[in-house]
UniProtKB/TrEMBL annotation, chain A:
InterPro entries: ComplexI_Subunit1, NADH_UbQ_OxRdtase_su1/FPO. It comes from the Bacteria. It is found in: Membrane. It is a multi-pass membrane protein. GO terms for molecular function: lyase activity. GO terms for cellular component: plasma membrane. The chain crosses the membrane at residues 66-88, 100-119, 139-162, 174-198, 210-228, 235-255, 261-281. It comes from Streptomyces nymphaeiformis. Keywords: Lyase, Membrane, Transmembrane, Transmembrane helix. This is Formate hydrogenlyase subunit 4. PANTHER family: FORMATE HYDROGENLYASE SUBUNIT 4, FORMATE HYDROGENLYASE SUBUNIT 4-RELATED.
Automatic annotation (TrEMBL), chain B:
This is Formate hydrogenlyase subunit 3/multisubunit Na+/H+ antiporter MnhD subunit. InterPro entries: ComplexI-like_HydComp, NADH_UbQ_OxRdtase, ND/Mrp_TM. Residues 116-402 form the NADH:quinone oxidoreductase/Mrp antiporter transmembrane domain. GO terms for cellular component: plasma membrane. It holds the Pfam family Proton_antipo_M. The chain crosses the membrane at residues 12-39, 59-79, 100-116, 150-173, 198-218, 259-278, 290-312, 318-348, 369-391, 411-438, 459-481, 519-539, 639-659. Keywords: Cell membrane, Lyase, Membrane, Oxidoreductase, Transmembrane, Transmembrane helix. It comes from Streptomyces nymphaeiformis. It is a multi-pass membrane protein. GO terms for molecular function: lyase activity; NADH dehydrogenase (ubiquinone) activity; oxidoreductase activity. The keyword Membrane applies. It is found in: Cell membrane; Membrane. GO terms for biological process: ATP synthesis coupled electron transport. It comes from the Bacteria.
């Protein structure tokens, strides 16, 4: 705990407050470029904030304290989280005041405050948003806490500074089976979102029911690739390959308006054959090495 | 009893003051015991044959202190609830029976943890069940639902009593004495089969009292239908005694057991937590929502208890102590916020005559104190900082996260699942209480009852404020309870390790290098809130905030009928958990007579029944009813035949005894 620590905490706060709008700007810019638009630039959220702050605040008739306090409370939880998370230094005066579980809970508190503000207006849209937000929040909480578990078990503590220090000294420690367990579904979800984002311009060309399903095909391709890249067992590799193959086929079918039956039959046969060949290879590999771990194939190198 | 002759208002005051006195005395005794002053009393003449033995150790003291404090506050609230002018009250709660039974119920709640022999425990347990049954039935003239609830409660609590009687009698028979000291001494010598049977029987009975799934069917019926002070006592205190029973028998008397006991407890706890909170999120009856949330929180306590047993079995005493401390702390926190919630929610039907969230709303302006207190309780119930419920769940998660380092496949599978279930239940609890607070108290009134609501009287507010103060204290300085909880855990037979230290301001787990500082968190949030509110003012200058019309999304002025109801709020969650909840939807389209293309009326009905009740209870009840109808042929109405049955039964019993011996 030193002057350096205080300075680090203060700069963390400034960094988060100044950087958060830039992140929003970056996301919007990337999406605009992917959709073939020029975009408003990285600084647009900052300009928006300046404009909104200058506007006259009003009180809608029929709303209560929850509606007024909620926005400030959301900012407050974000500020406290920004101060707690060791972004710049692990030796801050706030070390030990709260841990990873507290951070997750504080983020949830902001969500709850926003939902209450929406319900406070008593309009139809004011209810619809909170209803959906709380549904998503209820399902996100287990995922987040599983991630907390995955980070804390190898470190032996939920203390943020300790986890970060451990990760800096021994990065491999975080790649435990538990953390992969939590990371894989998250990555798969991110890849699916990416597939939807990438396919948006294509879908916009022809919003028919078949093309609407195009992102699903792309998502299967990406998840298949992810499985191929990260799994160790040969059998998991086979599953990944089949996913990839299915995804490509589905994308092809959905993007074009169907292919002749003979090609379809050929593709199905091809998949069947590939599955058989891969199974045979896997069995051979097990017989030769006693395992199906791909890392053992390195022995063939020399 | 003497108060029965008094006029109504004086009768209620006398009974309420008696109850509050009993509660305060119990609280003082409990705190003294928690501080390490054990005492015992033996009254050999009070019960036939065995006599009554009472003893208070820190574990009993903890439950007595909680029961006493909650009872005293609720009694103050109860005086206002029954005596209050106007409102939508009924005669039931003020009747002589109810007012005479209330102090008795309070006394039994305090004495159950003090019982130190099987017979005394069973007598007090039954006294508690019967007195609470009479209180549940207080408004039986007003609604048939009260009578149904009473019937369910009577049957379930007595089935529980039968299990408890069988389990404890078996235990006493094999350990050669019926005082708890004898049981403790004899537990080591009994065979594993007997120990397993005793555990299963008593745990089932206690879990049913705690409202654990699938033995919860009575809880969402009885708790909402009782008068609100009684609901608060039942949900805030009586369910605790289920948890007490499990800790007392499984840890203290039986001295621990094999892993499958504890895995079973964790499983039941996880199921209760998720199923209970899911039903709470679906409920549109305010008190039913709170009752299901009780099942959820007791599920969390059972997870902590089971984890403690599992860790003790694996040989990690300190971690086991931490898990049990987490469970006991959650019991304390749950009592505080649930009694607060039931008292605040109980003022609503009193002021509006409505419990249905779909027809409430807009109480924020009409009942500001009640709304504020309900919000305080809800903050505790959603287990988010800076509420008091968060502290217990934080400790529970800490113990589970660190338990993963223990060897064994069962630990490796059970604990991550338990963490996931706790997180899921916390997430859904947030949705449930946002619904209760946002739809029921904020928004705009959707019915006549809500429009005409008036703030409740000073006694009701005072009682609720007492509970609210308890919640705030527990949220800010949980460290004060540390030494007491440590003594309670030692009394349960685990090595006390001072797991929770840190004094007033913080909660520190030295062994796990984890710490939490609730006071700092509140201070930081307040400071950040002030900053977030002040900075825009500095930038934009101080300006008045004029009133403006509510944005209507361009659709014309919004009417209260357009506001989101509790049912529509819960619809996305209901859709996500469609397979678990199996809701019943009914769309009834009436076509116009002229053409089938024209629709005259559409009726949509959506109901989320308790699926466990439908699948597990109703078939059994139907079969029992069928058996009852079939056996009607045996009863012809002849008195001699009935006497003959009696004689035959007696002869058969003697025959079995003669052949058996």
């Amino acid at each position: 705990m030193s002057a350096y620590g205080y300075a680090a905490t203060a700069s963390q706060l400034v960094l988060v407050v100044a950087g958060a709008p830039l992140l929003t700007g970056l996301m919007r810019q990337v999406r605009a470029r992917m959709e073939g638009r020029a975009g408003a630039g990285l600084l647009q959220p900052w300009r928006d904030a300046r404009k909104l702050l200058r506007k006259e605040p009003i009180t809608p008739v029929g709303t209560g304290p929850a509606f007024h306090i909620a926005p400030a409370l959301v900012v407050a939880t974000a500020l406290v989280v920004a101060a707690l998370v060791p972004l710049l230094s692990t030796d801050t005066p706030l070390a030990g005041r709260g841990d990873l579980i507290v951070v997750v809970a504080l983020l949830a508190l902001g969500t709850v405050a926003l939902a209450l503000a929406g319900l406070d207006t008593g309009t139809a849209f004011g209810g619809m948003g909170p209803s959906r937000e709380m549904t998503v929040a209820a399902l996100v909480e287990p995922t987040l806490l599983m991630a907390v578990l995955a980070l804390s078990v190898p470190a032996g503590t939920t203390d943020l500074a300790a986890i970060v220090e451990g990760a800096v000294h021994d990065p491999a420690r975080l790649a435990s089976p538990a953390s992969l367990l939590a990371a894989s579904p998250l990555t798969a979800a991110a890849l699916t979102l990416l597939a939807y984002a990438v396919a948006r311009p294509l879908v916009a060309l022809d919003p028919g029911p078949a093309v609407q399903a195009l992102p699903v095909g792309l998502a299967v391709v990406l998840v298949g690739f992810f499985v191929l890249a990260t799994r160790r067992r040969a059998l998991s590799q086979v599953v990944g390959f089949l996913l990839l193959d299915n995804g490509i086929t589905a994308t092809a079918f959905l993007a074009t308006s169907g292919v002749p039956l003979i090609v379809e039959l050929g593709v199905s046969f091809d998949v069947l054959l590939a599955a058989l060949v891969l199974q045979v290879l896997t069995a051979r590999m097990r017989a030769a090495f006693g395992t199906t771990d791909l890392d053992d194939l390195r022995e063939l190198h020399d | 009893m003497a108060g029965s002759a008094l006029p109504v208002r004086a009768r209620v005051s006398v009974s309420g003051i008696c109850t509050a006195g009993v509660g305060a005395a119990g609280c003082v005794a409990g705190v003294a015991a928690l501080g390490g002053e054990a005492w015992s009393a033996s009254l050999p003449d009070l019960l036939p044959l065995a006599g009554a033995h009472l003893a208070v150790d820190p574990l009993s003291g903890l439950f007595m202190a909680v029961a006493g404090a909650v009872t005293a506050a609720v009694a103050v609230y109860g005086i206002g609830y029954v005596n209050g002018n106007g409102g939508h009250g009924s005669h039931g709660p003020a009747s002589r029976t109810t007012q005479a039974v209330l102090p008795l119920f309070a006394l039994s709640l305090l004495l159950v943890p003090a019982a130190a022999s099987v017979s005394a425990f069973l007598v007090l347990w039954e006294l508690m069940a019967l007195s609470s049954l009479l209180l549940v039935l207080a408004e039986h003239r007003e609604s048939p639902r009260v009578r149904t609830a009473g019937l369910w409660y009577a049957v379930m609590t007595h089935l529980g009593l039968v299990l408890l009687l069988a389990g404890l009698a078996l235990f006493a028979a094999h350990s050669g004495g019926e005082t708890f000291a004898d049981l403790r001494a004899g537990a080591g010598g009994t065979s594993p089969a007997v120990r397993d049977t005793v555990f299963v029987l008593t745990a089932a009975a206690f879990a049913s009292k705690a409202g654990a799934v699938p033995l919860h069917a009575w809880l969402p019926r009885a708790h909402p239908e009782a008068p609100s002070p009684v609901s608060a006592l039942m949900s805030g205190v009586m369910v605790n005694l289920g948890a007490y029973g499990i800790v007392r028998t499984a840890f203290d008397l039986l001295g621990g057991g094999p892993s499958w006991w504890w895995i079973g407890l964790v499983t039941v706890g996880g199921l209760s937590a998720v199923y209970g909170v899911l039903q709470a999120a679906m409920a549109s009856d305010l008190k039913r929502l709170l009752a299901y949330s009780t099942a959820e929180n007791m599920g969390l306590v059972l997870i902590g208890t089971g984890a403690a047993g599992l860790f003790a079995r694996a040989g990690d005493g300190p971690l086991a102590a931490l898990a049990l401390v987490a469970a006991l702390l959650h019991v304390v926190n749950h009592s505080a916020f649930k009694a607060l919630l039931f008292c605040a929610a109980g003022s609503v039907p009193r002021a509006t005559g409505v419990r249905d969230l779909d027809r409430l709303g807009g109480l924020r302006a009409r009942m500001p104190f009640t709304t504020g207190l309900f919000a305080l309780g809800a903050l505790g119930a959603v287990a988010l900082p800076p509420g008091n419920g968060f502290i217990g769940e934080w400790l529970l998660l800490q113990s589970l996260v660190h338990g993963l380092r223990l060897p064994g496949a069962s630990v490796a599978i059970a604990l991550p699942l338990a963490v996931g279930l706790i997180a899921l239940s916390a997430g859904i609890a947030a949705a449930a209480f946002v619904k209760a607070l946002g739809v029921g108290f904020f928004s705009r009134p959707r019915g006549e009852g809500a429009t005409g609501a008036r703030e409740s009287g000073p006694a009701m507010i005072a009682g609720t404020v007492l509970l609210g103060a308890g919640c705030v204290a527990l949220a800010l300085v949980p460290g004060l309870l540390g030494p007491g909880l440590d003594r309670a855990v030692i009394a349960a037979g685990l090595p006390g390790t001072d797991a929770v230290t840190g004094g007033r301001a913080a909660l520190r787990l030295d062994a796990l290098s984890a710490s939490l500082s609730p006071v700092w968190l509140v201070a930081a949030l307040t400071a950040a809130l002030a900053l977030a509110a002040a900075l825009p003012r500095l930038y934009g200058g101080r300006r008045r905030r004029p009133n403006a019309k509510l944005w209507d999304c361009g659709g014309g002025a919004p009417t209260p009928r357009m506001a989101y109801t509790a049912t529509s709020f819960a619809e996305p969650l209901q859709r996500v958990f469609d397979d678990v909840l199996a809701p019943e939807r009914d769309v009834d389209v009436t076509h116009a007579r002229e053409s089938t293309y024209l629709v005259e009326r559409i009726r949509f009905r959506n109901q989320v029944p308790d699926r466990i009740e439908h699948r597990a209870y109703l078939p059994v009840l139907a079969r029992l009813a069928r058996a009852g109808r079939a056996s009607r042929r045996l009863a012809t109405g002849s008195v001699h035949l009935h006497l003959g049955y009696g004689l035959l039964g007696l002869l058969a019993l003697f025959l079995v005894l003669a052949v058996g011996s």
